[in-house]
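Bug: token stream looks shifted between consecutive jobs. Job 1:
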Amino acid sequence: MSPVRRCSRTACGRPAVATLTYVYADSTAVLGPLATYAEPHCYDLCAEHSERLTAPRGWEVVRLSDPSAPSRPSGDDLEALANAVREAARPPERGDGPQGGGRRTADPMEVARRGHLRVLRSPDS
């Protein structure tokens, strides 16, 4: 027997990532993380089939998230990342006087800077 559980869908040989259980009394299909062992009345699904899962009319699908799985970045995360890249790409301000707006303080390990790239001194030297 293979140690990797496979998708329960016919002709699908991909590895299972989620377990589907039906609660007939509540007309609910529960899709959660892969169960620790195979149950006779549960269905193991691959990533593609678990994403495309639909329930019969009148039924509810409950998707339980796996807290150990990495979360997908949200729009806010991507926007924050883009803002950080733009900030790093800005040229440093070069004013020495009070109208100069203040200089950035350089990192003691920083030797040179070009755009958003920095040359750092080796910590050993």
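Job 2, same session, no restart:
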Amino acid sequence: MISNPSRHCTVELQALPSRIGQVRRIVSAQLRYWHLDPLIDRAALGVTELLTNVHRHAQPDKTCTVEMELLLGRLTVSVRDHDPRLPAVEHVTDPDVLATCGRGLAMVAAVSESWGARPDGESGKVVWFTLPALGAPRDRAARPPRRAADEQGARRFPEVVAVDDLAPAHAPARSAVVG
């Protein structure tokens, strides 16, 4: 389910390996829709790591919700599950540099601007990360109102056009789900 596709996207799923790939495609499609293509790789990697942690560690079930929110030039990606245990970053002391586990949150920390985890009610948690969305369209409600041309006086800088104003009025629909 995608809600308010202009600024917020929510996907509910079972954190199974086959679903993780689908969510990566949904994240990629949503970021393309928001014209945030440079964030796709980091967001997809981060959400993959968080969903893999839910798949490996969450109890009693693997049901979770992925949310993406674009607000004031910052993309926040969060994963909410029903396991109240907060994650901990493991310090990799294993001399095997080819080990395939224990590095997920360290990778999330490496690719994101910030990340964290917080309890969510009595029985759950939210793990999140943020990415700077430089050049992202700002929330129109947060933008100050434009002044009339005669109020502006002499212009010192060229006119700045919002990214939303450059987008075509209609973009063809694309499915993020195979099948």
